[in-house]
Amino acid sequence: MSRSPDQDLIEGLLDRDEEALRRTIGRYGGRVYAMAKRVLVDPALAEEVSQDVFLALWRRPGAFDPARGSLEGFLAGVARNKAIDLVRHEQVRRRSRVELIAETESTLRVVQDDAERTIESRDVVASLKQLSREQRDAIVLAYFGGRTYREVAEELGIPEGTAKTRLRDGLAKLRKLMADAEGPT
Amino acid sequence: MDREHDNFRSLIAAYALGALPPDEERELRAHIVTCDECMAEADLLLDASSKIALAVQPEEPPPGLADRVLALVHEQQPAPEPTVPGWRSRLVPLTAAVALSLVVGVLGYLLIDTKDQLATDRQVLAALLRADQGFELAGEDAVAKLVPTSSGSALVVSGLSKAPDDRDYQLWLFRGDEPVSGGVFEVTDEELALFRTDMSLEGFTGAAVTIEPSGGSRAPTGRLVITSS
Fold this sequence. Notes:
The complex is a heterodimer.
Chain A: H1 7-14, H2 18-39, H3 43-59, H4 71-89, H5 97-110, H6 119-129, H7 133-143, H8 149-156, H9 160-182
Helix pairs in contact in A: 1-2, 2-3, 2-4, 3-4, 6-9, 7-9, 8-9
Chain B: H1 3-10, H2 12-16, H3 22-34, H4 36-49, H5 65-75, H6 96-110, H7 117-129, E1 135-139, E2 143-149, E3 152-158, E4 167-175, E5 178-185, E6 193-197, E7 206-213, E8 224-228
Antiparallel strand pairs in B: 1-2, 1-8, 2-3, 3-6, 4-5, 4-7, 7-8
Helix pairs in contact in B: 3-4, 4-7, 6-7
């Protein structure tokens, strides 16, 4: 296992070093905020979620498990879950199907050679691109839209069984593509 | 393979994407805890779905984000809880047994606040996956797995409801017919509970959970809730 580039941040957080928290926010604040904004219409709420994400990290840095992924991915995932929580339980406005799909498609178009992205995040984008459009739309509605598979079916006008299949085949393919991109470890 | 299993299996991707209605999610989780095949698939797919967030293009965060987070940190005294003991050693490669005990340690920590449910599930699954030893327990509505850890054992239960105020759940380990108390535990979340004990499973042939008067009993007296076969 190679030493993670974030190990200094993690050790600082475990030592309750506020400077480490500040540096973590400097490094991943934009990642977390963008993720929350992808789900939430209101930018003020997206900021609130971002604050929450870093506050949670400060309180429990042990929740991040370096054996299972990058700090960047962990924080983005927590942001996604917190934002989805808001649209599900607090009746906060969520993005429409059209908006969600359009934003994803445009992200996939723009991304080439973006030096700001990590290799891992470029792999995710490249893998998403290789899904069929139908699979991708279903996954985007579920993941960024917080829709259940039943809602995915309804919004796409397809039977529930088909929605389940698209999510399943899409995610399985995504997993395989990302594993291949990562290469043998 | 039976149809029920196939049906559950077809829902794992939706589960990994957080796209199951709550009742279906509960049922699926109860199944996953007892089904190695579904558990393995859920683990893989949860891992994949957790990376999708990285597809979003980062953008400039609102100015002053760090200052506001730090202000919140200062507002919320007293100082945060200490971190999980032993965590630091997790940053270096570990033997499977130690890794398991740490995962379970982190998990116990996380269960205090299960808001990040999917992250929690991932760790539950990771812990269970690595455990091919231990006991599977089942009862009318609940299922559990009791797994050895480097410092004793850990019980992960799905489906137990909160005990009445004057009652506690108590874990028993059996050496033949002889029960030995593994300690009492509380259930606060019907979906998933974790209980750690320093009791080693070494030499025991079975396990069960009963419901006992608060504080527990010397020998099982109450209703049997789950038991190993």
